[in-house]
Specification:
5 strands, alpha/beta, five-stranded parallel sheet, P-loop_NTPase, 56% helix, DNK_dom, ATP binding, transferase, globular, 223 residues, 11% strand, kinase, Rossmann fold
Length: 223
């Protein structure tokens, strides 16, 4: 069986897909640390002045990096896990916030050194990296709709739309040209809604299982 990470934009449905695939494969599931993250609401709601003074963007990236490092260390010890976003995507968020001026060049340099050290530590584990990323991709309209439906109050501010669009606009390029940790299967969230359409959920499960069979990570189903 494989180690699988589920990647994609804020609101894309990573948690739902991780749960769906984890249950279908009988895997443990490692969820992104959101509910217990005290910095996340501050990152979304602080004014520019507060962001500059408190450095919430940098602190948030360190918090996520720490929790994702912990999760992937636990996952890579075994052969059968699903992670709701992984340490590999964390760099992309840090880079976008650096480009936007929310993380300084010095902070980003420190962040990259820490990430490099963490990834080198992973080389010492029984398994070095995931086998497969399930990447959820789709239109920006669908992303905004799903963020709205999810209803986290701190994500709803209209002033965040430009930030979301900046993240969204470069995500496909990051996956296509900068992510090399594993093979990738793309799921079009404009086409498949695994939460509200059971038939879509079954299709996504089969797409992932077929990919794992192709990779030699899953035995073909017997007729």
């Amino acid at each position: 069986m494989a180690i699988i990470v589920v990647g994609g934009m804020i609101g894309a449905g990573k948690t739902s897909v991780a749960k769906l695939i984890g249950n279908a494969l009988g895997s443990d599931i490692f969820y992104e640390n959101v509910d217990d993250n005290e910095i996340l609401p501050l990152f979304y709601t602080a004014s520019e002045e507060e962001q500059e003074l408190k450095r919430y963007s940098f602190l948030l990236q360190l918090e996520f990096l720490s929790s994702r490092f912990y999760s992937i260390k636990e996952a890579l010890v075994h052969r059968n896990n699903v992670l709701d976003r992984s340490i590999y995507e964390d760099w992309y968020f840090a880079k976008v916030n650096n480009d936007l001026g929310r993380i300084s060049n010095l902070e980003f340099s420190i962040y990259e050194k820490l990430l490099t050290n963490m990834l080198e530590e992973l080389d010492e584990l029984p398994k070095k990296s995931p086998d497969l990323m399930i990447y959820l991709t789709g239109s920006f309209d669908t992303i905004l709709k799903r963020i709205g439906i999810r209803g986290r109050e701190f994500e709803q501010d209209i002033n965040l739309v430009n930030y979301y669009e900046t993240l969204w606009s470069g995500y496909d390029d990051w996956v296509d040209n900068h992510y090399h940790a594993s093979q990738v299967i793309k799921i079009d969230i404009d086409k498949y809604d695994v939460v509200n359409n059971p038939a879509d959920a079954e299709v996504v499960i089969e797409l992932v299982k077929n990919k794992l069979v192709e990779m030699g990570q899953l035995e073909p189903a017997t007729k």
